[in-house]
Amino acid sequence: MLRSDRDPHAAGRLPLHRGDRPQPPGKTRQTIGLLLVLGVVLVCFWLVDARWGRLIEAPPILADYFELMAQGVFQNPVEDPTVGYWQRAFDLMLESLYMAWIGTMIGALLSFPLAFLAAENVAPKPVVFVTRQFLNAIRAIPELIFAIAIMLPIFGLGPLAGALALGVGSVGTLGKLTSEVIEGTDRGPVEAARASGAGFLATLRWSIVPQALPETIAFWLYRFEINIRAGAVLGVLGAGGIGSILSDLFRVRAWDRIGITLLVIIVVTVIIDQISARVRNRIIQGPGVSARSTQLQPVTGPAAA
After folding, report:
1. At CB < 8 A and 24+ separation, what contacts does 123-132 make?
2. 31/295: higher pLDDT
3. What is the CA radius of gyration of the chain?
């Protein structure tokens, strides 16, 4: 029986008198919900049928791998053949960045007009329905399938196939996010444009695009970060970039070169992430406003009492 069923005040059947303290809400439902979630998690662990006992062996094995990779990282980087390893890793990482950037640009150019067709406040309902299903279908197919089934047979092994696969794969996500931004725009500028006699395209250009563009560009930058990581995975299939060398190195167990390659991936990814975050914040918040300054501050003074 729930506590609200036992307590007439909590159930709202009797009014509270002056000086009565309201009873805290019951935790029965939350407790039952947590137990159900815990039960589902335990069932999932059991269905996986993994050898969980080997987790105890994982720390020493990982320590051995890290030691082997560290031997390559801490070698003198200006001596042969280590200098060649570093140069090769940076060249292929740069190729991965090219793939991710071209793929993001393709996705942005294709998704932007599709987003207007998928927005309910712009396009008719039949057009919105068809466009959304098209974007859903693209989102449901991983970039790996685009690369293996479509791009590699046409363009062959290389960065071009990887960039095109990333571009097509980006259309679904960017189109959906951009359409939601368009639907959330303020109607005031739209009504003002119509009242001044602007046509349909002029209304889109001068009232909706200026509102939606900052968040849309932020989504493009975020997708660029995702495409960097996805491009590394596509490289394992022969699409070029840093993933291609990782596949070869793991095949021959060259742990020293694997350590160098992973360190290059981590450092470049962190740098790109920091730059992208600052640019996104600059676009959305405006100049002179940092993300830290917009954080919620703790309430102090009499209001906090």
Report:
1. 131/175, 132/176, 132/179
2. 31
3. 27
